[in-house]
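Hello, quick one for you while I still have it in my head. No rush at all, and the record is pasted right below.
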Amino acid sequence: MRVLFVCLGNICRSPTAEGVFRRRLEERGLAGRVEVDSCGIGAWHVGKAPDPRAMEAAARRGVDLSALRARQLADGDFARFDYLLAMDHDNLAAIEARRPAECEAHVGLFLAFAGYHGRAVPDPYFGGESGFEEVLDLVEAAAGGLIAELEARLEPSS
């Protein structure tokens, strides 16, 4: 199973989601069975580490984002990933605009897995520290729902 988190620049929301989700997979013993990555719609930050504010907020919750580097959504991602999860409606529209007709991946808003249908993870980039805490709260809520879905889809390990 492969999951890709997508935001605008891949330095705030999607790397936070990637880091939190990796930790949750480890806690559930699924780290070796689910591949996780993140990317951005735009290329502004390719190769850069996550925003220092995102890294600090995540670190306060025990999540290390320091090894992550931004990358842009690639055409091959549509065949490689089973889930392409957008942080907001603009990201979702950009994914859908590039989505090949033969793509069978689940494409949608990440917060749907927290029961927040139609709700977006707000971009904290131009705000204060509290925005990064809100992102973490929302990502943690949705991560649980996505884990539950993946556990139901994964065959029991032998």
In short: The chain has one domain: 2-153. The chain has a mean pLDDT of 96. The first strand starts at residue 2 and ends at 7. The first helix runs from residue 13 to 27.
